[in-house]
């Protein structure tokens, strides 16, 4: 069957009344939680992961896609009106968007962010639909050594791409490896690192670790900061609609941001942060009035927001086709798949085409829902920004606890939630990224299984791991993944830091 036929079947799945309801609930919840200050898409998806636990796999993943896109969009509202980026990819949006809000142009800033997100999400999702089958055809010829090399690439990617230090990323990754060793050995059936505790024989639940480290750890970290004064929410004054000049200045930035963000998001060493920095630098170079940058240039909102959302769709390319998470949010989504016994990769397209194509089609529907939902309800989202932080983070603690109880009603599981939450707080306190630990727990057992299979086939000959051209190529890319993010990040950040310095002067 052709891509058009698969996509049409996926649309039929996504257009079923219950699945449309799941998508609507997902984008609404994702936007509502994503708008809240200090909460990025990864925390949003982790916090709402238990909500989807009791649904059927197709409905759950469709709601998950809505939560993902809604959380990505919600961060722009916080950045523009509160000058509080929920994640590093929203820094550039805050830089120009908040200046527009202070100048009484918060409406056009929010509008160009919403429409740019829609345009980028639409183009990038179509790109995902047409690129994914070709990557799947390549991945279907993978053997154990190729899969192990792919896992090495994933480990290197998350270690080097998250945080400012590759060493800290590796440390976080090995914490995940250690947790992945807990439970029953898949090959021998022997108990490992369970310390005689029966509850540990099934291993550490990915959902518990993700919710604990992202939600509980973040809450403890924010609470430890104390009261730093009230944050001022810029009111949306004047019309929400963009003028003809705003449209003429935005549409090219949307397209350029999409073209920059999607391929970078799909790269193993990509990520939304790099795309937004490069988009901002590109718009500043191409602008007819570059002196407006730093004072509220609408291109500085349109381009990076489009790049951010295109990158969000781009990260689904390696996630769905290879099982390779390249962002913290993608790592949580991988956990969402695995809670239904689904492993993203080429076999997912072969064994569960209805689910995966329904998911891709639901991204198109969720994207349209976001546009229709967000523009009329901007006033409601602004009111959410005024929720006092003690109430907000107390609610997060309650929601995370209830979600964990609903997914696994066990006192021991609640104890693990608290313990991992404290671990997440300590890691955050000392600047260790969280995502590598989650990826280590998810992919560690898979990497171990493929390595042992490869060594069994080769009768213990380690050199055969690099004899395959594909495996050797993946390992070379893994080595390059240490270098490429540093170069791109330094280049993009140089532009932003120079702009910040100019603003301070």
Automatic annotation (TrEMBL):
Lineage top rank: taxon: Bacteria
DUF112 domain: residues covered: 20-438
InterPro entries: DUF112_TM
Organism of derivation: Rhizobium favelukesii
Name of the protein described by the UniProt record: 52,8 kDa protein in TAR-I ttuC' 3'region ORFZ2
Keyword Transmembrane found: yes
Pfam family, one: TctA
Keyword set, alphabetical order: Membrane, Transmembrane, Transmembrane helix
PANTHER family, per the entry: TRICARBOXYLIC TRANSPORT PROTEIN
Stretches that traverse the bilayer: 20-49, 61-82, 109-135, 147-163, 169-185, 316-335, 355-379, 391-411, 417-444, 465-488
